[in-house]
Amino acid sequence: MIALPPTFDANLAIDIALLVMLVVLAGAIVRTRSLLAAIILFSIYSLISAVWFVIMDAPDVAFTEAVVGAGISTIVLLGAILLTRGETERPDWRRLIAPALVCITVGGILIYAATGLPALGDASSPANAYIGRAYLEAAPKDIGLPNTVTAVLASYRGFDTFGETAVIFAAGVGVALMLGFGPRASLAPPPVVTGDHHVVLRVAAKLLIPLIALFALYVQFHGDLGAGGGFQAGVIMAAAIILHALVFGLRETVSAVPPRVARSVASLGVLVYAGVGVACMINGGAFLDYDYLFPPEVEKQIPGWLLGDSEHAHHWGQHFGIMLIELGVLLTVAATMVTIFYGFAGRTIDDARREAKP
């Protein structure tokens, strides 16, 4: 067995290796002229970034980066190149001088600023010594959730998270208004084709799609205990629907999940989130003050063993309020991602050419 030096830091070595991979990938993306190769490299870049987020103890961000960056974004970009050329035009190198100088300058400033940041996990850093420590100390007593991240995002910052959910919904509405769903998305499902050459792919998809949807629900309801929540579960659920469209065809998926249903579910998620806040106000509290979600006489009727610990003083309003608003986030995020996918995938080359004409 090879003995490692006493000062060897495995985490540092992994960080350096991942950073080198990212730099090499970035250089390859800049040099390649093939749009397909660039998209695949972007996907690998996002996947490595997700691994780095896990090492940096940010699994929630890693979930989102893996699903959105390496998954759905790659699918949308692959669908976009069907409407354009396969390679980029060779640019005039003289036009790249000014952007390159700007990038080098900003990168140098960021590297210089990073040297003044506290060490990762430093207990005396501002993030851990002030508001961060206050959240860690107060969350178990105020919210009663094991996962402090969920307590902060869904309760302390519940109004901010509601704004983020509304922004996602507005993005889906904007895409639907600009692109619609295209002629291919509104046609009837194609007839059954005999002698299909993609039997293995279809069978594998039928096995994976339910598992992906089940994992999305696990991430949704596991958010109180660990990494997860409505945002991550929403993009995973949307990935299952988009995978169905890629394997079985867009019109088959649209017949199962019509565009009007996607739009309705997206708006329903925002209404569920806002409805929780309104219910709190009706019971005498502030907007999204979950302690007022239930009237006192109703809260007394909830059995203490419901969460497995009859001796612990449960914050029933907080538990159920966070569960409901996370459900609203799941519905909005999943339906919005599907709406955006329909908007891009339902277009044809003729649509793009007509809109490109002056």
Describe the protein's architecture and organization.
With 358 residues, this protein is an all-alpha fold. The chain folds into two domains: 1-117, Four Helix Bundle (Hemerythrin (Met), subunit A), CATH 1.20.120; 146-358, no CATH class. It has helices at 10-31, 35-55, 59-80, 97-114, 126-129, 131-142, 148-156, 158-179, 182-186, 199-221, 230-248, 250-256, 259-282, 296-299, 316-345, 349-356. Helix 2 (35-55) runs antiparallel to helix 3 (59-80), helix 11 (230-248) runs parallel beside helix 15 and helix 13 runs antiparallel to helix 15. The model has no long low-confidence stretch (mean pLDDT 81).
Return the average pLDDT rounded to an integer. Answer: 81
Number of domains: 2
Estimated helix fraction? 55-70%
β-strand amount: under 5%
Are there runs of 5+ residues with pLDDT below 50, and where? none
Helical run tally: 16
- Cα separation of the termini: 70 Å
- Radius of gyration (Å): 24 Å
Largest sheet: none
Question: Structural class, please?
Answer: mainly alpha
**What series of H and E elements makes up the topology?**
HHHHHHHHHHHHHHHH
Shape: globular
Number of strands: 0
